[in-house]
Amino acid sequence: MSTKRLAVVCNYVLREDRIGGMDRFFVAYDAAAKAKGYEVEWFFPDVLDKTFYEGVTVFSAEGNSSVEAFFLNYLQENEKTYTTLVTHFTELCTPFYKKAKHAGRIKNLIAVDHNPRPLNGFPLKKQLKNRLKGYLHHKATDWFIGVSSYTARHIVKDLGKVVARKTGVIYNGIDTSVFRKRENHNLNQQGKVKFVVVSHLRESKGLQDLIDALALLKPDLQNKLHITIYGEGPLEEGLKQQAKDKEVDQLLTFKGSSSEIPKILAYYEYLIQPTYMECFSLSILESLSANVPVITTTVGGNPEIIKESMNGFLVEPKDKKALAAIIEEVVLGDRKITEDTSVLIEKEYTLDRMVAEHINLLD
Fold first, then answer.
1. pTM of the model
2. Least C-beta-crowded within 10 Å: which of 108, 164, 174, 212?
3. Which residues 6+ apart lie within 8 Å of 236 measured at CB?
4. Its domain of life (predicted)?
5. Going by DSSP bridges, is the β-strand pair 167-169/143-146 parallel, antiparallel, or unpaired?
């Protein structure tokens, strides 16, 4: 019996200070594939720390090239062959897939799409380019998997109906056991209502709108809330300066990246995510798992998980007045969430379910 060999190519950097939902998925998926008899090898653009990945066979491009180019070079230099190739966070329908399939004599190629789309869609030139890529290169990929129904629809919209028959959905899931749960939804009566943001600090995450929304609140209401921001990114200094200019910097604390998110979410009353583009947010799943409701936008897969007034509140992206109004109503107690938001996650969006559905694609 020939050995089954699996390669997983991920455009994702391994970091010590960011052990998140995808890291837990990768490690669990590795164990499940091995249990099915696969030898598994992982390829990343850079590995800054692999402590969490003990026992996982990891190769790193060390930041010297794209992970796709690194993998192709690895195939050529080592004459390796694989039964299956799975990709995460890579661009779909590029020549890479055909080259990899041929060089690695790969029988089954699965591309998992985590990439959000722009708020107003791609410009016409990009649309035409995507459609051409789909026509030219779709045959090399056996499965296109979106992490939400929104993502799957847009795979077909972007690449054309030629990919519709081999496009499916596997929702992101999380390890609910690692999250400390908030006991109830009572607001902090002794101090300020505590909101939390867990986000990469870039323009598409919409945190500049959150700062503008805070500036719309009256001073007496501002004194009743505080927002802690976990994450880093190119917009960090700009956001801090914007907060100072708007005279709301005292309402915000920037904490940087943290690997302790599962333990600390329950200390907050609401997660705020004013994003412009999203596929299916792990941060939202994690917050709900901690029984912390979410205030977010109607983009991407967000409406597939957030049910208005049941586990959170939705606003249109860039609507700063609506965001300010919801924050005000929440702080004043005029809007409330009473249901345990973790129940849905434990039932429908678990890591075990996500892993099992991805493993099923291997056979």
1. 0.92
2. 164
3. 201, 254
4. Bacteria
5. parallel
